[in-house]
User: Fold N-methyl-L-tryptophan oxidase from Bradyrhizobium barranii subsp. apii.
Amino acid sequence: MRLCEIAIVGLGLMGSSALHSLVRRGADVLGFDPITVGEARGSSHGSCRVYRRFNFESAAYTDLSDAAFKRWRMLESASGRTILMPSRVLEAGPPGSKMVADSRAAARLKGDIAGAATGTEANAAFPAFRLPEEWDVVVQESGGILLAEAAIRAFREGAEQRIVAATARMRPTAAGIRITTPHEEVLAEKVIVAAGPWIAGLVPRLARHLKITRQPVGWFAPARPEWVRYGEFPIFIVEGARGLVYGFPDFEGRGVKAAQHDHGPVVDADAWEPPATDDELDVVGTTLADLLPGAAGPIVDRDICLYTNTLAADLRKDDGNEFIIDRLPHDPRIIVASPCSGHGAKFASAIGAMVADMALDPKVLAPEAFRLDRYSHPLAGRTGGLL
Assistant:
């Protein structure tokens, strides 16, 4: 049986970031994940994610965004790869939009006016848009396109010999946490669980606080390709009549990637098939046609993303869609670094470093907002399951 100081179960953005941090600090660490980079499964698959400095979900995220930004730049410098491509982020909604107001408020707390505008002004600046004139708009200059798979590859460079490409079960014992794969057993002093939608299978008592939703993604052949090029067209989040739709400039030559941010149907962790249907992408296509006609067009590619979302807490003000980053109360040798409720990728460089700190130093605590003590239901019980 192999021994190690720290095991990481799940090597998407969060787990690979933690692996990178621990290897750099000389820790004896092994990572487990059956999914290869580029495979169309897992919360971190696909080429890109949105980086926003100011987050309508909570102004408290700004400091975490800033810490993550610095670490993304450090990763770029160390790896020689492009990880974060600068891009403006345009958020728009009807007059009084809470999303726009909350983003604006988060920016003001840092002394940033964040480009307040109207629909008329946004349409003039970005001709692909056709927003109602009276709409509220905010434009962040300090956003970016996070190249997710490139980031994972950069995090793993130099750590390839520490990665076990296999499913993993874990079982706490008095001697340590026993990690079992189809080929071997490993005994770890501590475990970081960063398994995205599979986390409930590894920590079953967590399941009652989570829901996994199916989020269809489409690439659309734009009506006006010259209007949606990277550098000229922003990342966008628009509050249409049927919900929030976000998307990217055509930076890959594949078309405009867009998806609905509102939660889709509740599914299990293996619901990656079938591919997104035309009906599932109807809200996205209709929203583009109504509000961004220059970006609208036929679907040329499609994918599925899964959000692993937290439910509302009962012991602190928390409406759900937050993060869980904490030690398990009944076994602090196990650190949970998931879920991220569909908006955690941009923070992965900082969160990975955070959970690495927690694994190395028992005095380090996660931010209060992310801790499990916001829920009254105890998590005591056996831990086990399949990644």
The domain at 87-142+211-307 is CATH 3.30.9.10 (D-Amino Acid Oxidase; Chain A, domain 2).
